[in-house]
Amino acid sequence: MASTFGKLFKVTTFGESHCKGVGAIVDGCPPKLALTESDIQPQLSRRRPGQSAVSTSRDEKDHVIIQSGTENGLTLGTPISLYVANQDQRPGDYSEMAKIPRPSHADFTYQMKYDIRASSGGGRASARETIGRVCAGAIAEKLLKEYAHVEIVSWVSSVGDIESEAPNLATITRDQVDQTIIRCPDAKAAKSMEKVISKTKDDNDSIGGVVSCVCRNVPVGLGEPIFDKLEALLAQAMMSLPATKGFEIGSGFKGTKMTGSTHNDPFIMKGDRLGTKTNNSGGIQGGISNGEPITFKVAFKPPATIGQEQKTATYSGKETTLAAKGRHDPCVVARAVPIVESMAAIVLADCLLQQRAYL
Question: How far apart are CA 51 and CA 178, in angstroms?
């Protein structure tokens, strides 16, 4: 199914940006896992719109309701239904755009594929769809922490041409990341990023950026050889997010400028286990986790919907000018941080359950 991700820990998202609500069905979560709405809400609140001056003004509280799959605070092993109501709906903002595909948006491709589309807010192509992912990701994180003490932290590492100093990957926390509204732990860079985004917003324009992520305490052995390599699954998960245009793991593209003698990660003893001295591999070798921190980056393009007038064409090919209405992020990276964490958690939880099935 196009809206389902995972093999054992399966996540199916549902809903459009201006329908009555959005959410997810999680199938395959083990029984007796402690779970209530309070385990899910923190990440949803980090993702929600209207939380700062550098995000969209759409005011959604995004309160999650667990509709099934738990009893007395424990999972039952049955499908978990998660629902979040859309409250601040304004489909009328999109009435003038019904016959005009927005440049670089999914309006045109959805219309061509299905011969119909949700005309308000992008429908399934809207970032509202990621609410279901974040709900499911919070459950995946709970499972990962209980089974393997896995920690996942993402942060904004660049906006436009502004790059932050790399944090200590061994100690960086979400609390440190959330000290700035842009979710960049480098305070100096964060101020510059906020200024650039504010100016971009004032200009009715948008700008892109990069979200980095580290996954710590990942057990050795996650991922499958050949087609289901762990980095391939992470790449698929991240590139399935709205507005993504790039993914790199470990040394990434910088590794192409290195020699094998400098890029190789020598093995050394780390306490009672074998580890690597460096981590250019990004925690994955041969498609399988090696016990080192998994590190990767995700590139997000400038949001397609902007308030400036743009020359374009209607579906019938008539030249026209479009100034999009609605409420949109001038830059998505700050709100993308918990979404990246959630998708990483879903991938790792699914792989962990597969690995445990071997043993």
Answer: 12
User: Are 159 and 331 contacting, i.e. CB atoms less than 8 angstroms apart?
Assistant: yes
Over the stretch 196-225, which tens digit does the pLDDT of each residue have? 999 999 999 999 999 999 999 999 999 999
Q: How many CB atoms lie within 10 A of CB 172?
A: 19
Q: Which of 194, 213, 190, 207 is nearest to 298 (CA)?
A: 213
Query: Which residue's entry shows tokens 């589309």?
Result: 117
Distance between CA atoms of residues 282 and 277, nearest Å: 12
Tell me which residue of 138, 112, 110 sits closest to 9, measured CA to CA: 138
Instruction: Tell whether the torsion through CA atoms of 239, 244, 250 and 255 is positive or negative.
Output: positive
Backbone angles phi, psi at 153, to 5 degrees: -135, 130
Dist CA 297 CA 346 (whole Å): 17
| Tens of pLDDT, residues 280-289 | 999 999 999 9
Closest CA to 124 of 134, 135, 109, 142: 109
User: What does residue 245 show for φ and ψ, rounded to 5 degrees?
Assistant: -135, 0
How does DSSP classify residue 85? E
Strand positions, DSSP E, 72-222: 74-75, 80-85, 151-159, 162-163, 209-216
Tokens of 249: 């793991």
Q: Whole domain around residue 263: which residue ranges?
A: 4-358
**Cα–Cα distance measured from residue 96 to residue 270, given in angstroms and rounded to the nearest whole number:** 62
DSSP letter (8 states) at residue 162: E
Q: In this structure, what CATH number is given to the domain that contains residue 333?
A: 3.60.150.10
Q: Can you give the pTM of this predicted structure?
A: 0.95
Dihedral sign, Cα of residue 217, residue 282, residue 28, residue 83:
positive
How many domains, the chain? 1
